Amino acid sequence: MSLIHELEALQAERGHLEKDDLRDLAARLSVPQYRLQELVSFYPHFRTTPPAAIEVAVCRDMSCHLAGADGLAGRLKAALADRDDVEVEEASCLGCCERAPGVRINGVPVRASNVDALAQVIREGGPKRELRPHRAWKTDPHGDADSAYEGIRMALAQADPDEVSLQLIADLEKSGLRGMGGAGFPTGLKWKLVRAEKATPKYVVCNADESEPGTFKDRVILEDLPYLVIEGMMLAGLVVGASRGIVYLRHEYVTARAALLEEIERARDIGWLGDDILGSGFDFDVDVFISPGGYILGEETALLEALEDRRGEPRNKPPFPGQKGLYGQPTLMNNVETFAHAAAIAGEGADWWMGHGVNDCAGLKFVAVSGHVEKPGVYEIPMGTTVADLIEIAGGVSGGRALKAFAPGGASSLFLTPDRIDTPMDFAALDAAGSMMGSGALVVVAEGTPLLPLATNIVRFFRNESCGKCVPCRDGTQKATALLERAQATGEAIDMDVIEKLNLLLTETSICGLGYVALNPLLSVAKHWPEEVPGAGTGGAS
Hints:
By secondary structure, the chain is α/β, with parallel strands linked by helices. It has five domains: 3-42; 54-123, Glutaredoxin; 148-353, 3-Layer(aba) Sandwich (Rossmann fold), CATH 3.40.50.11540; 363-446, Ubiquitin-like (UB roll) (Roll); 451-538, NADH-ubiquinone oxidoreductase 51kDa subunit, iron-sulphur binding domain (de novo design (two linked rop proteins), Up-down Bundle). Helix content is 42%, strand content 12%. It has helices spanning 3-14, 19-29, 33-42, 62-66, 72-79, 115-123, 150-157, 161-175, 187-196, 217-224, 226-240, 254-269, 300-307, 336-348, 350-354, 387-393, 427-433, 451-465, 471-490, 496-509, 513-517, 520-528; strands at 54-59, 86-91, 103-105, 108-109, 203-208, 244-249, 285-290, 331-335, 364-371, 377-382, 403-407, 441-446. The strands form three sheets. A four-stranded mixed beta sheet has the order 2-1-3-4, with helices on one face. A hairpin with a 2-residue loop joins β3 (103-105) and β4 (108-109). The longest helix is centred in the last third of the chain and has 20 residues, at 471-490.
């Protein structure tokens, strides 16, 4: 068991981690105590003080801000002032943006419209876990778990594994499938590059640590289609020559974890995972690694650092994970959605997948929709569906209000104006419109919403989630947040020249993407709505 899992197990048993516990654990594992302390001090999931009987986490970030989360934690504390067994804390994005404002009570998401309703739930002993109804998805060619793994079955039935692998790469390249976690790197090319690496062993890692505000699609895919994700990982293992897969899952995704572990056990029982699958000579198994928390772990090399029991700080690149990844070995890493689509393409063919696109685009896309819409949730759309059509699918702008702004790719993307509403949800189209697909998270903002507080909320999120390894990122996001907060407290103008210089510093010197995107929301608001940003007319953003 890894050091992180040892710490998680100890915390699950004791409720928290005391110095004596760490000393005893260090002695038992024969590791220096500082190795444990550096992990406990870095990862937010670990705590060194006893928890209350009832722990309440209140999300404060993008989608929840739009739903009135500001001050919610304080109001809830006041309403429960007579309860010394309740602990209410603000938290970074909880991955339940469709329930905004997001609240978890002892890890269980809660639907409650106001403070009084939340307080009543707590006084009644806490919430009961809700099971979201299973949905059918077009990208699932099987329809259910009992019919799953057809793509890998057909691949393993072929006499020449090399020929099969090359054909699958060709199908992925023909399909145009790109990474759906944010970077958008061509999937077929990535698999081809890792396959070409000579070093062994190799690994397949599924990044299921989506933690960006507005993003929760991978959670839903894992809840409904764990078998498709596992099959995609198996196919990747066959292509690149790996026998071990790891799903790196954020710890808040309790329901997804249960679905995933259940399917892994089922697949092992019926012979789809393990040694010599279907008598083919192909060995492959999947483990689940529960993240100890932190947005930065969605960055692929920070994730690898966590898997290796270190602080989750991004690595310098090159080398890239495909060359030297987990334990210094070639590692294929994709996100949940990408593996699911790869399995669908293997089972049904590239032409089938491409045929679902519209507006000269190819394939399918899962999009998390939140903010000011009537029906927030995850929607599976043909790639190329316009933003306007997607908002309509989600019930339209809430309250019948007019659209003011939208972020098509989550908190890291730039806001766009209503005149861009006919832009297709597609990598190239959104790039041309001045934003990006990002994490596949459309956040809708209705008319009447002040945009500077929203931009400040997002910049503050990136400040809070900076790992601190890059001084420009650590101090630059702090400086930008301070400028924004002071401007709103005093009414003074924001020095946009300073903001522009900070952005240049962050984009030129940050090791990972956090620094590249941290000021995007503010810059786009200053560009498109300068009247809402005091000082926007005096700097480069004007």
